[in-house]
Write a structure and sequence with these properties.
The complex is a heterodimer. By secondary structure, chain A is α+β, with helices and mostly antiparallel strands. Chain A is built from 16 helices and five strands. The radius of gyration of chain A is 37 Å and the shape is elongated. In chain B, about 55% of the residues lie in helices and about 15% in strands. In chain B, helix 3 links the parallel strand 3 and strand 4. Chain B starts with a strand and ends with a helix. The chains are: A alpha+beta, B alpha/beta.
């Protein structure tokens, strides 16, 4: 049933279901029939919500079918209170006989939860078995109208077939057996699925299980207090609600994971690109310039040897300028990607930043082992940007950079004694985004006159 | 003097080999990674190995690791580590792992062949050489409470030269002072900075570098 997407046009069915429920209510209230309307509405709303998220979600479609089936039963039985309505007998008939088939349908929906597929061949066979006996009961119910007596209807069946008494006897025995088998089968299926489920599936199934347990509690409580299962019947609509929430919450979770993964991929790709550029500069341009420097060095020596001091000075000056250029290029390459970070770790890289800072830096590093490359790079950029901000805007006398690792978290703090009042400037905003992309937290505390404190807590990754 | 060069950048390696050859060095091997250098050194140890700090496969500190292995197998080989960048922690590590015949030089240094030749000869002779650029930067670092402020101009000069690996004799020569005067300066510096004086050259360099890096 759920291996073959049953409804390609869910919106139409949803609209018809809604019309049937509204129409049923217009015909007056009936406490004994109310649960059908509630189940129809809750299954329909949750099914539609799921389909909004995943247009082709199989379980969402099953919800819609379950809703539609209950709407038909609700409408038919409401109609059955009005013998004077047109075609009252036939319409009512449709509200009565499908009960066994609908129960099998509900079992299928539960067994297919949460992905809309049965969890294995055994359960496909089990469901087929339920379908067969349920189908037989449904045929009996349709031909001999054996359910009519329970429903307190004012409208008689549309036809009679001989042998009703015999059918009643068979039905009275078979009905509790088959209905119990249906409940036991889907319950066993959920339990087995829950036991074998991965984290995300288990999260969804738990929602359904909570609702089932609540339903059972109300059932037992209701039987003890009132002697009737009516109250439990009214909590059944909570099942599709809980099950639907499970699926939707999980979808949100998955969507969030996707967004986080995308942000992380962007950061990783950016780091890789930076690294590539740094390597290209290092292996290509810088070495070519160095070789040029070697040539100029030889020129200096030759000129010295020949006593041409003017030429020697000129060559020397050219060489010095070239070295200046390579030094600048080196710093540029470092800014693009600090190779010291990848090669020697965060402590060395922070040391390098401290070495280069125009403001004196107190460095406190308590790191035990390496963290992931993204985490380390993020911490490094926080320190780098923090120090740049401090030296440009804060007027601070000194800066403290602390890096520590507690379990699987890396904490980095840059604090200065400057003027404070640092807003989330462009650089800091970028840092906040970057820290968030690796699942970390970023905080800037910068009251006027009290210095600036930038904190980043980053999963070690 | 027999020299081996290990650098993965062919352009630089060949350029360096050429000028060294022109200056009378005998370049007996030119290789692109640590393993190849180790093989060449093991087969026929040279006087000196010039080693790029970052080499394949991971471009991190292969040079230092190779140097350590060479020191184990052929203790007489001088080890000149070349680096593209000034990295004080690498220099410190070299001073910790090696006692003699080791140097840390910026690649820029090769553009002044005469100076470079002096440096590598010193390394081959067993001395310790630290690139002056690195020392200059460490000394020039801004500090909150600068302990170097307590030093005289001359003492600062002595400190820098000490950090570059110069022995007392070399210091005396460089500054045109007597060895006794130099020794007095050195003692004074160590007292003022609160450091424990150890005459062993690499330890002295290490102590000074570590102090400057604090």
């Amino acid at each position: 049933m759920c291996d073959d997407p049953p409804v390609p046009w869910s919106p139409v069915i949803a609209a018809l279901t809604g019309a049937l429920v509204v129409g049923g209510f217009v015909m007056g209230g009936d406490e004994a029939n109310l649960h059908n309307a509630l189940i129809a509405v809750s299954a329909l709303v949750m099914g539609a919500s799921i389909l909004r998220f995943h247009v082709r979600h199989r379980e969402g479609r099953l919800f819609i079918v379950v809703g539609a089936a209950h709407a038909v039963m609700f409408f038919g039985r409401q109609y059955g209170r009005h013998p004077s309505y047109p075609a009252a007998r036939w319409v009512t008939w449709f509200g009565v006989w499908p009960l066994p088939a609908v129960l099998v349908l509900v079992a299928a929906a539960v067994m297919c939860y949460p992905d809309g597929r049965l969890p294995g061949r055994r359960w496909t066979i089990a469901l087929a078995g339920l379908g067969a006996v349920g189908g037989l009961l449904t045929v009996v119910s349709a031909l001999w109208n054996v359910e009519y007596d329970r429903m307190g209807l004012l409208v008689a069946p549309p036809f009679t077939v001989p042998g009703r008494n015999a059918a009643m006897r068979v039905f009275d025995v078979a009905r509790p057996l088959v209905f119990t088998a249906i409940q036991v089968t889907w319950a066993a299926c959920i339990v087995e699925r829950l036991v074998r489920a991965g984290a995300s599936e288990a999260r969804q199934i738990r929602w359904l299980v909570y609702a089932v347990v609540l339903n059972l509690v109300v059932l037992v409580g209701g039987l003890i207090v009132t002697g009737e299962p009516r109250a439990a019947l009214l909590t059944v609509p909570l099942l599709p609600v809980a099950a639907g929430i499970g699926i939707i919450a999980n979808s949100y979770e998955a969507l969030l994971d996707d967004v986080r993964a995308t942000a992380r991929r962007i950061v990783t790709a950016e780091d890789a690109a930076r690294r590539r550029i740094e390597r290209d500069l290092h292996d290509g341009v810088q070495h070519r310039l160095l070789v040029l420097g070697i040539e100029l060095g030889r020129l200096v020596e030759r000129a010295d040897d020949t006593g041409d001091t003017a030429l020697a000075d000129q060559a020397r000056s050219s060489r010095d300028q070239l070295l200046q250029a390579t030094a600048e290029l080196r710093e540029l390459a470092r800014g693009i990607h600090p190779s010291v970070l990848a090669d020697d770790g965060l402590e060395a890289a922070l040391g390098m930043l401290a070495d280069r800072s125009p403001i004196p830096v107190r460095l406190h590093v308590g790191l035990d082992g390496r963290c992931g490359a993204e985490a380390e790079a993020t911490a490094f950029y926080v320190a780098s940007e923090g120090l740049t901000n401090a030296s440009r805007h804060s007027g601070a006398g000194h800066v403290t950079v602390s890096a520590s690792r507690t379990g699987e978290t890396l904490e980095l703090v840059v604090a200065d004694d400057g003027v404070g009042g640092a807003e989330l400037l462009r650089g800091l905003r970028g840092l906040a985004d970057r820290v968030a992309s690796v699942g970390g937290r970023f905080h800037v505390h910068s009251p006027l006159g009290e210095g600036t404190r930038i904190e980043a807590v980053i999963p070690c990754g | 003097m027999r020299v081996m060069i290990a650098d993965d950048v062919v352009l630089f390696r060949e350029g360096l080999a050429r000028i060294l050859a022109e200056s009378g060095f005998e370049v007996v091997a030119r290789v692109g990674d640590g393993d190849a250098l180790l093989a060449a050194v093991t087969a026929d140890p040279p006087d000196l190995a010039i080693i790029d700090l970052r080499m394949p496969p991971s471009f991190s500190t292969e040079g230092i690791e190779t140097a350590t292995l060479i020191r184990d197998r052929a203790p007489g080989v001088g080890l000149a580590l070349l680096s593209q960048h000034v990295e004080p922690h690498h220099a410190l590590r070299l001073m910790t792992e090696f006692e003699r015949g080791v140097g840390y030089l910026l690649k820029d240094r090769v553009t002044d062949l005469a100076g470079f030749a002096v440096d590598i000869r010193r390394i081959a002779a067993g001395e310790v050489v630290i690139d002056p650029e690195l020392v200059t930067r460490l000394v020039a670092r801004r500090r909150e409470h600068d302990p170097l402020a307590a030093l005289t101009e001359r003492e600062r000069e002595v400190l820098s030269l000490m950090a570059r690996g110069l022995s007392n004799t070399a210091l005396a020569e460089e500054l045109h002072l007597s060895v006794k005067t130099v020794e007095a300066h050195v003692r004074s510096i160590f007292t003022k900075l609160g450091l424990h004086l150890d005459e062993r050259e690499h330890r002295r360099v290490r102590a000074v570098l570590a102090f400057l890096r604090q």
